[in-house]
Design a protein that fits this description.
The complex is a heterodimer of chains A (about 50) and B (about 170).
Chain A: H1 3-21, H2 25-44
Chain B: H1 3-15, E1 21-24, H2 26-30, E2 42-47, H3 60-67, E3 72-74, E4 77-80, E5 83-89, H4 93-101, E6 103-107, E7 110-114, H5 117-127, H6 130-141, H7 147-156, H8 160-169
Parallel strand pairs in B: 2-5
Antiparallel strand pairs in B: 1-2, 3-4, 4-5, 6-7
Helix pairs in contact in B: 4-5, 5-6, 5-7
């Protein structure tokens, strides 16, 4: 991948990060709630009974 | 119980006069300025009332108030709904300044207070764990810091040399 592509990708990512950071605090707290729920669900998920 | 409800309980705690002032720090506080990232708990920085019943157990009145409203103690945390909350005293000059300078926020009708981005980054630099260094990078990438304000905080709290080292090793500055 050439340098220009890397530059474009990192610039787009930086812009996306700034955009995400600028969202309202209340909205971002709801995202934290969802992330926590998801992490909890992953931790408490029962292993499948099917054997390989 | 969602984070907004946790903030509502903290607001009630302050309104009841149990703590004179509180502010949200850590990853939840950082979320005010940068992208949300999964976190285990809510860090709440507080100043204890001078009239705290016992200097050895200053959390007592906080726990008493919140457990009466449904919270439960779990290790070093107080579980408010689904969220573990940790109460940290503002026991050094940087934390005390951060608490005094914390900004008021309204979260869908709930009043709360969050450390400024510059104080959160300075605290992360002072703590210096890998996750704290990453947070400083995130603040920089999000353009969340007023660098003049940040530099003044670092200077006041003897962190300028640590910042130079961080800039050299992590940011690759010369």
């Amino acid at each position: 991948m050439n340098k220009r592509t890397w530059t474009t990708i990192s610039r787009d990512k930086a812009a996306a990060r700034r955009q995400a950071a600028a969202r309202p605090f209340a909205e971002k707290l709801v995202v934290l709630d969802r992330l926590r729920e998801r992490a909890h669900a992953l931790r408490t998920r029962k292993p499948s009974k099917e054997q390989p | 119980m969602a984070l907004r409800d946790v903030l509502s309980e903290l607001e009630a705690l302050e309104h009841a006069g149990i703590v004179p002032r509180f502010a949200i720090g850590g990853a939840v506080g950082a979320t005010r300025y940068i992208e949300p990232a999964a976190t285990e708990d809510v860090d709440v920085c507080i100043v204890f009332p001078e009239s705290a019943a016992s200097p050895l157990a200053p959390h007592g009145s906080i726990y008493q108030f919140l457990t009466a409203r449904g919270a439960r103690a779990e290790g070093a945390h107080l579980m408010i709904g689904d969220w573990p909350v940790q109460f940290l005293p503002a026991d050094n000059l940087l934390l005390a300044e951060a608490l005094a300078a914390a900004r008021e926020e309204d979260v869908d009708g709930v009043g709360t207070r969050v450390f400024t981005a510059e104080h959160l980054a300075a605290i992360a630099l002072q703590l210096g764990r890998a996750k704290d260094k990453l947070r400083v990078v995130q603040f920089l990438e999000a353009d969340a810091l007023n660098m003049d304000v940040f530099a003044a905080i670092l200077d006041r709290h003897g962190l300028t040399e640590r910042w130079r080292e961080f800039s050299r090793t992590i940011l690759g500055d010369q």
